[in-house]
Design brief:
Blueprint lengths: L1 E5 L8 H18 L8 H5 L3 H5 L6 E10 L2 E10 L10 H4 L7 H22 L1 H22 L11 H14 L4 E8 L2 E8 H22 L7 H20 L7 E6 L2 E6 L9
Antiparallel strand pairs: 1-4, 2-3, 4-5, 6-7
Length: about 270
């Protein structure tokens, strides 16, 4: 399922969400401009579980690249000592969330953040949302680290932090709907789905994939436990703050025939801005 948009308006400009997308975009452009003769940003700012567990342990970087041969282009595996982290290794739990592995990875993450982030920022307020987003990113990285402390594969991407945003959205907007593209055999269907259903299916996939790969002892290219940890962190933090009335008043909706009307409730207690 590919989400296109949701049906919940935002009452304020999501400046923090825009700033996060802009920061990730700048970093991605820097990644695209890298040259082979210098250590990559992934090596210097990516989260490598084995390096976090033991900052002094030597780590080997494995990378697949294409080379020209008399028989055409072929892929070869390069191995070289990984460059040391540019920051203390524990800080890579955060810096890794601003890196991406390619166009599809980058665009997919930023698009999902664009759809769901503005409404979560609307409830948290600007400062609260920034703290929440970065915290979810750190918790997601920690979950991946705990799942495989010996891995030498760099972990990058905003998916864990965005999973926290999705967990918050799941709880805060139970009546929201998401317009999705759904491939059914050879046909593409565009339909509205309840947001809890869309997000619930997404989380179930992450959980099933994460538990199956962990049980099989297979290291794949997706940090499933970062997604799981981020989603659960977003859910738990949002539940606690909502129950203690530290969030902004929700945007309510009611149906009138075929139309949906949105209105605001007045806040009852203080909230982050």
């Amino acid at each position: 399922m590919i989400p296109l948009r949701d049906n919940i308006p935002s009452r304020s400009t999501p400046i923090v969400n825009y700033a996060v997308i802009a920061a990730c975009s700048v970093v991605f452009l820097l990644q695209l401009s890298e040259t082979p003769d210098r250590p990559s940003l992934v090596e210097r700012f990516g989260m490598v579980p084995a390096r976090v567990a033991d900052p002094n342990a030597p780590v080997t970087m494995q990378q697949v690249r294409e080379v020209r041969t008399p028989f055409g282009r072929q892929r070869v595996l390069d191995e070289h000592p990984m460059a040391p982290a540019a920051v203390p290794t524990w800080m890579t739990l955060l810096t890794c969330v601003f890196l991406h592995g390619g166009w599809l990875h980058f665009v997919g993450n930023m698009w999902v953040l664009w759809i769901f982030g503005d409404n979560v920022e609307d409830r948290y307020g600007h400062i609260g949302y920034l703290i929440f987003y970065l915290s979810c990113g750190i918790i997601a990285s920690t979950a991946h680290f705990l799942a495989d402390r010996s891995s030498t594969m760099p972990t990058i991407g905003a998916s864990g932090a965005i999973a926290g945003v999705m967990g918050a959205y799941f709880l805060l907007y139970p009546r929201a709907r998401v317009l999705c593209i759904i491939p059914i055999f050879f046909f593409l269907q565009i339909m509205w789905l309840p947001a809890p259903l869309f997000l619930g299916i997404w989380f179930l996939i992450q959980f099933l994939e994460g538990t199956s790969t962990h049980a099989a002892g297979v290291a794949g290219g997706v940090a499933w436990w970062a997604h799981i940890g981020g989603f659960l962190a977003g859910l738990a933090v949002t539940l606690w703050l909502r129950n203690h009335r530290h969030l902004r008043a929700p945007i309510e909706s009611r149906s009138s025939g075929s139309d949906q009307i949105f209105y605001y409730r007045q806040p009852t207690r203080s909230h982050w801005r």
